[in-house]
Amino acid sequence: MKTLVKPMGRGYQTNCYILIKNNSSIVIDPGIGAIEWIAKNAPNPLAALNTHGHFDHTFSDAAAQRELKIPVYIRQEDGFMLKNDYFNMNQEPCEADYLVANEEQIEIGEFSFRFAHFPGHTPGCCMIEIDECVFSGDFIFDRCVGRYDFPASSAQDMKRSLNRFMALYGADGKDDRAIYPGHGAPTSIQKARSFLPYFIDEIV
Fold first, then answer.
1. Which pLDDT value is given to residue 196?
2. Which domain holds residue 153?
3. What are phi and psi of 95, to 5 degrees?
4. How many angstroms separate the CA atoms of 63 and 185, rounded?
5. What are the E-state strand segments in the chain?
6. Exposed end of the chain (fewer CB within 10 Å): N or C?
7. How many CB atoms lie within 10 A of CB 96?
8. For residue 195, with 0-12 CB atoms within 10 Å meaning exposed, 13-18 middle and 19 or more buried, which class applies?
9. CA nearest 159: which of 202, 108, 103?
């Protein structure tokens, strides 16, 4: 699988990812101004997957539906953010084609992926796992975690989610998959395990 990434959206620098396999592709987090780049670089796009509902990750969802004719996936708890320009950023409203309600594997063409639910940054914040890659959105960054002081965020949900990550990912020392965040450089599961306890302790 080939992975392309480009920061999108003026000052927001949101990472938009294109995953390519056997001349088909999937898009993750089509942010502000992403459609032209996607149209140029994504062969036979099959879907747009959103790690969460914030506008800098979903701004081009409506254009993806209209211009690329692809369905939009998001966790069900964040679907409301797409419908009504939740942050008043002149985002074109749209309705997700699929509101993901569980953590089961989803198959589209050659791709198999899973929305692992980690609320806190938003109610529907997820890490999307595809093959040996983990796309963490704004849940985990390199040496940092997502904010939990936005409307609809929850500090206690974030603390529970970080503890759940520590319990489920890499505790045996063997799982060290790459983590591709919504902003900034990649990290890894084992590196995340080294800095997450600090943030867990900081959340009261």
1. 98
2. 2-202
3. -120, 130
4. 27
5. 2-8, 14-21, 24-28, 45-49, 72-75, 98-100, 106-108, 111-117, 126-130, 133-137, 140-141, 144-145, 178-181, 187-188
6. C
7. 24
8. middle
9. 202
Residue 40 to residues 36, 68, 107, 138, 182, Cα–Cα distance (Å): 6, 11, 24, 26, 21
* Six-digit token string for 182: 């919504």
Tokens of 79: 């679907």
Mean pLDDT estimate for the chain? 96
Residue in this structure with the two tokens 């008043």, named with its chain if needed: 88
- Token match 């390519």: residue? 20
Task: Find out whether 33 and 15 touch, Cβ atoms under 8 Å.
Answer: no
What DSSP line would sit under 43-59, residue for residue?
Answer: SSEEEEE-SS--HHHHT
d(CA 164, CA 184) in angstroms, rounded, equals: 23
* pLDDT average, residue stretch 15-22: 97
Helix (H) or strand (E) holding 158: helix 155-168
45: domain CATH number is 3.60.15.10
Number of domains in the chain: 1
The reported pLDDT for the residue numbered 10 is 77
Regarding beta strands 126-130 and 133-137, do their DSSP bridges make them parallel or antiparallel, or are they unpaired? antiparallel
- Determine the average pLDDT of the residues in 10-16: 92
- Distance (Å, whole) CA 193 – CA 32: 31
